[in-house]
Design a protein that fits this description.
Blueprint lengths: L1 E4 L5 H12 L3 E6 L7 H9 L4 E5 L5 H14 L5 E4 L16 H26 L6 E5 L14 H21 L5 E6 L16 H12 L12 E2 L8
Parallel strand pairs: 1-2, 1-4, 2-3, 4-5, 5-6, 6-7
Helix pairs in contact: 1-6, 3-4, 4-5
Length: 233
Amino acid sequence: MNILITGAGKGLGLATVSEALRHGHHVIAGVRSLEQGNKQLQEIQQKYPQQLDIVHLDINDESGIIRAKNAVEQQLGTVDVLINNAGILVGRDWKLEELDMAEVERSMMTNLYGPMKVVKHFLPLLRKSAAPCIINISSEAGCFTGAYGGDYPYALSKSALSFFSAQLRKELTPQGFVVYNVHPGWIRTPMGGEQAPGDPKDTALGLIHLAERKVVPEQESWMITYKGEPMPY
């Protein structure tokens, strides 16, 4: 399969690149900058030179997304799996009355509008796949049952992403797509921190199993774990 992963230069994105390659898939690793911070990804590319393409894909730059889509289409023709992994977490310690609304807007731009733009422009390539799959990395922080009166920029943007996933499912499932809204768990990444109990490799393996349809969650599960288990929303 051809698997496109956004935010592929670090954390869960990087772990998912490695797992997908180990499973024999062709990976398009989207990164915000081709010049900075991709040493590990470049080392992986040396090991899998025929399977890994690193592309400039800033999910906040719609014209750049279009250029990436055109490049992928010219080289591969189709995308089978899109994993919308790129995201930001800002303002963790801000109380509501301290919110910087510019940062709230930036969170919405990256965590919601970014995935929307990537789906918008790569959907024609996904439609060419025999088994298209879209996986949006959301968070239990965006669930009604997970509301805890904090992380407003992140939680609200992830809640909106979850609803976008639901919209996609309603539209695309009848067309042969699977669309998953996934809580990745609290994992040891630059976002999750070193104190997190989870290993991103485990989450990455779960994502690939979902993409391969080795794990098939219950159809009406609006939020699932990386193992495909339904979660309350």
